[in-house]
Amino acid sequence: xxxxxxxxxxxxxxxxxxxxxxxxxxxxxxxxxxxxxxxxxxxxxxxxxxxxxxxxxxxxxxxxxxxxxxxxxxxxxxxxxxxxxxxxxxxxxxxxxxxxxxxxxxxxxxxxxxxxxxxxxxxxxxxxxxxxxxxxxxxxxxxxxxxxxxxxxxxxxxxxxxxxxxxxxxxxxxxxxxxxxxxxxxxxxxxxxxxxxxxxxxxxxxxxxxxxxxxxxxxxxxxxxxxxxxxxxxxxxxxxxxxxxxxxxxxxxxxxxxxxxxxxxxxxxxxxxxxxxxxxxxxxxxxxxxxxxxxxxxxxxxxxxxxxxxxxxxxxxxxxxxxxxxxxxxxxxxxxxxxxxxxxxxxxxxxxxxxxxxxxxxxxxx
Length: 366
What we know:
The longest helix is centred in the middle third of the chain and has 17 residues, at 164-180. This protein has eight helices and 21 strands. It is of the alpha+beta class. The strands form four sheets. A six-stranded mixed β-sheet has the order 7-8-9-3-10-11, with helices on both faces. The protein has a five-stranded antiparallel β-sheet with strand order 2-1-4-5-6, with helices on one face. The mean pLDDT is 87.
C-alpha cells in the first residue's frame, strides 16, 4: 500500500494532499495543473516535500520531519511516462534487459517471459524503437519498468501522446498487467475513459488539493445538479459479466441483474467481470417497451430520485437490481409526459452505439 501525506509550496502553486492506494490501480485524476504530476515526482523521489511523509508498504520513502529522503534509484519504483524514453540504439530485447540488469538477482520477482507474453511484444524483440508504433513503444516501456520488479509502478499520462487507435491497443495490456501482476499502480490521467476503465480507486485533485476519493462511480459521476452543461458529464458505471461475444456483429453481451447490455467491443474475455460507463444523456426512459426497436439494451429498474428545477431538464436516478444506480437526463416535458414518480418501475433503454468501447474494461481485483 502507498500512503501519501505531503505539502509543497512554490511561487505559483501549492500542493497539500493526503491519500492511500492499495492493490490494483489508484488513479490521480483532474485537469491540467491540478498537481497530479507533482505528486508522482514526490513519490518517485525526484522532488522533496516541504513537509509530510510518504510510505510504501512498511518502508518510509520520505519524512520531512525526520529528514528522511530515500533517493529515486533505491525506492524500488518503476516509471512510465508519456514519452516511452527507450534507448534508440538498443533493440527491444536489450531495452527490456536494461531494467532487469539493475535489479539484484534475489529481488527479480517478475519473469521476463511473463512480461513479454502479457504485453504481446515477443515479435518485437529484434527491432529498434524507431521502427515501432507509438503503442508498441509504450508497451515496451511498460515491460522495461516491470522487469525492475518494482514495489510500485508509476504511470504518468502513459497514453496522452497516442491517438485513439493506439490508446485502444494499449489499454487492454494495462488491464492485463494490473490483473496478472501483484504490483500496485499509481496512474495519472485527465482522461475519464482511461480512469473509468482501469481504476479501483480514484483520487480527484483540484488546485493542489484532494477534492474526492472513492470508486470511479463515486468520484467521476457529478452530483445531482441539473444545470444544462452538467448533463454531458454525468456518468454511471454498471458492473456485469461477459456472457457472450459475437464476432460477426462485433459486440459483447454483458449480463447485469437488471438485464443484458450489448456493448460494441470484442476486446473482452468471456466470463470476465467488466465495468461499463454510461452517459446520462444516452439513457432513454420508458414505462414499457415494444419489440420493434433497434435498441438492444433494456434494463429494468425503479425510479429512485428525480431532481428538476425551472430549466428544461430533469435528472432521474434509476435504482437497478444488484445495487447499481443509473443516471438519466430527460427534458421536463418528456418526464411529465411519462408521469413518472419516485418508486415506480421504469425501463432504461441504452443504444449500443452510444457506449464508448474505450470505457469498457475489466473491473479488476475486488
